[in-house]
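Repro:
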Amino acid sequence: MQKIHRALISVSDKTGIVEFARILVDEFGIEILSTGGTGNLLEKNGIIFKKISEYTQTDEMFDGRVKTLHPKIQGGILFRRDIVDDMKDAERYNIPPIDLVVCNLYPFKAIISKPKSTLTEALEMIDIGGPTMIRAAAKNYPDVAVITNSKDYPLIIKELRENEGAISEKTRAFLAQKVFTIMAEYNANIANYLQKINFPDKKFGDNVIKIFKKVFDVRYGENWDQDAALYKDLSADFGLQNIKQISGKEISFNNYLDIDACMQVLLELGIKDYVCSIFKHTTPNGVAIDRKSQLNAVKRAFNTDPLSAFGGIWGLNKELTVEIADFIVNQKKIFVEVLLAPAYEEGALKILKSKKNMRILEFGDFLIKRKSIYKNPEIRSVLGGVLFQDYDFGPIIKEWKVVSERKISIDEKKALIFSYIICKYAKSNSAVFAKWDHDGIYTIGIGAGQQSRVHVVNLAHQKALEFRHDLSGSVMGTDSFFPFPDGLEAAVKAGAIAIINPGGSIRDNEVIKKADELNCGLVFCGKRVFRH
């Protein structure tokens, strides 16, 4: 391993740089080259260095746009120490070796994230010299080390001390790989920003550049013989990776899919009232809203289908209390795969942790970040590519059009909207029966994933009957129009007094006529909520 004799330091983020440079100079006698802002900081702190302009005998140009783009800099980084002709060229042109490059880039992403940032400001934050230096150093990592993050300073100091002023090739390779990942993200941010600024009407551009960073491997994929991992989108401000696991088994691939679905219902229903959402296989199993009691919301969500709630994903929108923990663990002795809440009472955690395998997750202020979470498009993989679409997070009701002779009361309207929200998160075709009282609204029958509209209504009815729910006086939401009146007839036969769907069938008039014959309220809301 070759010792480090000369280092070039030019950093935008100056965290820890003074202490790091001082160790390089005082402990290892390394010569420091530096640029304007970084050099001024080193000088202020009494650290000896040589200015780049003195080293290259060339002044900075164009208000600092050109500082390090010089053969003596790039050549000193790039020439190969084991190639005779390279060594001869370096001697011929008086280009000493630069063995260490410490550089992080202009904060382009931070600038464009500011609400009032301008194109001019953004263009000035497109770094040129920095990327050139770190790419050169990374290309020549067998001879040159490159540091792009202050978090790596302790690692380098440790190695220098252990190796008498040298850095191992393994570490240099690790640091080099980081450079190209950083550059990929940096270039992606620039390309996506310029596309957005210059072609605002082109929502989905010809090229979309996404960078994902692995959070960790998961136990396995959808099935035991599939490998899998969780990655975070580096362009996203917030996501499932921000949820904290307090205890329980490792989270699986399928768990994450269920968690995602359950969290989206909580995001939709908000934090005003108590909400409990229970999911199984990415479909709602039972959901309830209660104005006064968290326990009542939990009981009603559970009672929708207590059989299928076994092994489900349970989500609550407010701090989980001792009362809820006692209900789950001691009273009902329910096996819960994953429990989601923004926070937990200390006594509740003590009870819940007695179930060693239950995954207990805390999501903090996740529910107030809905707009930020949904700012990026939804991406789904298909063979050989991906599909992009906007997340469906706008108002659930596009229009409120009562098309039946029977009118809709205020309470019925609230229950209809609730049922429509829940069927939005059930696999299409879906149908959701709901009831209400002075305390809140709750599901009593959920059908999902059927090929026929009438079949899914019958399935929801059948499941409700299985658990002795009385559907008389209920309302029902279904995620698309009735292609025939038979679906509406099945819902009324089950006990529904009002139904909501988007409308849009060529047989809407037949469906409306049947609703009037059966004295059923019928609302067309103008918005389909399929979930494939």
